[in-house]
Amino acid sequence: MPAVAALAMLAACGWPGSATPAAAASAEQSINVAAAPVRVAQTPHGPVGYRVVGSGSPLLLITGFSAGMDDWSPAFVDALASHHRVVVFDNAGVGMTGALDPLTITAMANQTSALITSLRLGRPSVLGWSMGGMVAQALAVLHPSQVSHLVLAATQAGNGKALPIPSAAAAAAASTNAAMVLGVLFPPSQATAVKTYVHGILEYANYYSAPAATKTAQTAAIQQWLAGDDPAGHLTTDIRVPTLVADGTVDALDPVANDQLLARTIPGSQLALYSDAGHGFLFQDLASFVSRVDQFIR
């Protein structure tokens, strides 16, 4: 994800410095993930940095490639936290979370399992975005007693049958150029969604993302998953918890055929596709997606 300096520059270029309606609404609420303190859980798989906000049934959010927990739109997290106790955290090697060597999707799933145990979340609902959706799948097959519902957003199966990530889109996602990253998260027609998202994540006081070495290791882990070389990727047919697969119809990083494959692979899963939306559909179509998630996991 882009550096905060680059995002601040984008926000300054013709975008008002005052709070957007979404930011203003967030400020009026007592639920505010951007103001929640970062805590550290000590687990057998190393320390894990996290935030927790809201109350109700537990909902764990697993973020994607190169992202820190500051890449979750505060409006998105706060909306979910109006009905759930939401936990966001950093994957291995990001922020205050300890690195793993080797870094694999399975290793990240095991670290996530250790966090669930440490925080005594019991059987939370789990929402994974992009690479986080791969981790969520591995968590559900390796630690089934720790997942009650599974929401897989803009992600791929790990059985070796998924279409590859288009090379140009992958390069853009890994770029340090903020505009290029945002260009693969949102389609060109969604300038308002881009502005809202950028203003949202700038609410975090000390925005950060994954260091270069972690991004390299994550790339290798993703490639291993997509190639079917992570054993957990072949076990998704064993998932028996209610599962929702969702994405935008014009996701530049994850062709819709992959969402359809994933939905067919996981028994009884539901598929939700959002028109004229991309990899960041969950922020672009925030109201409708949060409502869908709420109804699904209640």
Note down, in words, how this protein is organized.
This protein has 298 residues and is α/β, with parallel strands linked by helices. It has a single domain, classed as Alpha/Beta hydrolase fold, catalytic domain (Rossmann fold), CATH 3.40.50.1820. The chain contains twelve helices and eight strands. Helix 3 runs parallel beside helix 12 and helix 4 packs across helix 5. The radius of gyration is 17 Å and the shape is globular.
Explain briefly what this protein structure is:
It is built from twelve helices and eight strands. It is of the alpha/beta class and 298 residues long.
In one word, what is the shape? globular
CATH topology name, in short, is Rossmann fold
How many whole angstroms does the radius of gyration measure? 17 Å
Estimated share of beta-strand residues: 15-25%
Question: How do the SSEs run, as a string of H and E?
Answer: HHEEEHEHEHEHHHHEHEHH
Any low-confidence stretches, pLDDT <50, length ≥5? Answer: 1-6, 11-29
Strand order of the largest sheet: 1-2-4-3-5-6-7-8
Mean pLDDT: 92
**Name given to the CATH homologous superfamily:** Alpha/Beta hydrolase fold, catalytic domain
Number of distinct beta strands: 8
| Largest sheet, strands/sense/barrel | 8 strands, mixed
Helix and strand content put the structural class at alpha/beta
Number of domains: 1
Question: Helical proportion?
Answer: 25-40%
- The CATH class name reads Alpha Beta
Total helical elements = 12
Q: Give me the CATH architecture, please.
A: 3-Layer(aba) Sandwich
Q: Report how far apart the termini are.
A: 31 Å
